[in-house]
Structures are given as C-alpha cells and as structure tokens.
From TrEMBL:
Belongs to the purine/pyrimidine phosphoribosyltransferase family. Catalyzes a salvage reaction resulting in the formation of AMP, that is energically less costly than de novo synthesis. CDD domains: PRTases_typeI. SUPFAM superfamilies: PRTase-like (SSF53271). The keyword Transmembrane does not apply. Residues 34-155 form the Phosphoribosyltransferase domain. It comes from Novosphingobium silvae. Keywords: Cytoplasm, Glycosyltransferase, Purine salvage, Transferase. One of its GO terms (biological process) is adenine salvage. HAMAP family: Aden_phosphoribosyltr. GO terms for molecular function: adenine binding; adenine phosphoribosyltransferase activity; AMP binding. It catalyses: AMP + diphosphate = 5-phospho-alpha-D-ribose 1-diphosphate + adenine. It comes from the Bacteria. This is Adenine phosphoribosyltransferase.
Length: 178
C-alpha cells in the first residue's frame, strides 16, 4: 500500500478532545490488517535504512507500532513506560505537559551501551513526550539516531524540537492543522 492509501485509513474526528482540534485517529489504520502491515513495513524500511539496532516505543500506541517494527526487523524492543509499570528499579524523567507534568520510565538494562536506537510512536505533536523519551534512552546508554512516526502535525513543532535535539525525524504522513 502507498502512503496515500494509508492516509485514507486514518480517521479524522473534529472537535476532539476539545473544540477546534482535528484528532487524527490511528485506530482505524491499526484495525485494517493490510494497512497496518504496510505502515509497519514502511516504518521498518526506514529504521533499517537508518541502521537501527534497537526499537523503542512510547506508551501506549508507540508499543503497537514499535513492537511490530521490532518484530519485523528481528530487533529488541524497549518499552518506554508510564510510571509504576516496570517491576525493576528504573530510570525516570519528568517532563512538562500543557497543564502539569508527567513521567516516563525505562528499565536501565534494556538498552545495550551505545546501541543505535530508533524511537517509534504513532504521532508527533508538540514533541514533549518524544523529547523526554529520547533523553531517557540516552541516559540508559543508547545512541538515539532517529524518531519515526506514523503521523506528524508539523504546525505544533514537535518534529522541529526533536531535530534541534539532534534526532533525525521521519513520519509516514503529515497533516496540517491540529
């Protein structure tokens, strides 16, 4: 399937979660077997071209895309979790949200020192969560060489913030507006 075909599988929901927002819903893509397989194939081809050795996914939809990419490539998958989900001592990072803060955690032994890591998630918006994940994976010893997304919302500036942090960013699809 082409990227244009994949675009047709993403549902847009107006005024969610609040008025004026166009929510880009990947659940319709995930629910389409051939479409999801094609999206994973496109992401895996890009990760392979970048020389990925480890795939990391951000909770929750990044687990869906990232684990599938890692499995397709035969690479390790590292989950970047919300607090309190890992049964071992963790590395943690707090990051700012629009209203407050949140935390991400990773198993400190999950990333081999110097491993070339690609972060995978469903969507990049403002970039706060992705930047926190990158920093956390770097603290864990990884060399984060890229961040790959199904969708980019360029007007929100997240991809640019990641590039400013030295991370190569790729997205299968970009949507204007937010």
């Amino acid at each position: 399937m082409t990227l244009d075909d994949l675009r047709g599988l993403i549902r847009t929901i107006p005024d969610f979660p609040k008025p004026g927002i166009l929510f880009r819903d990947v659940t319709t893509l995930i629910g389409h077997g051939a479409g999801f397989a094609a999206a994973v194939g496109h992401l895996a081809a890009r990760a392979e071209a970048d020389g990925a050795e480890v795939i990391a996914g951000i909770e929750a939809r990044g687990f869906i895309f990232g684990a599938a990419v890692a499995a397709r490539m035969g690479l390790p998958f590292v989950p970047v979790r919300k607090p309190g989900k890992l049964p071992v001592p963790v590395l943690a990072i707090d990051y700012a949200l629009e209203y407050g803060t949140d935390t991400l955690e990773v198993d400190p032994g999950a990333v081999p020192d110097g491993a070339r890591v690609i972060v995978v998630d469903d969507l990049i918006a403002t970039g706060g969560t992705a930047l926190a994940a990158v920093e956390l994976l770097r603290r864990a010893g990884g060399e984060v060489i890229g961040a790959h997304f199904a969708i980019d919302l360029p007007e929100l500036g997240g991809a640019e913030r990641l590039r400013d942090a030295g991370v190569r960013v790729q997205a299968l699809l970009a949507y204007e507006g937010h």
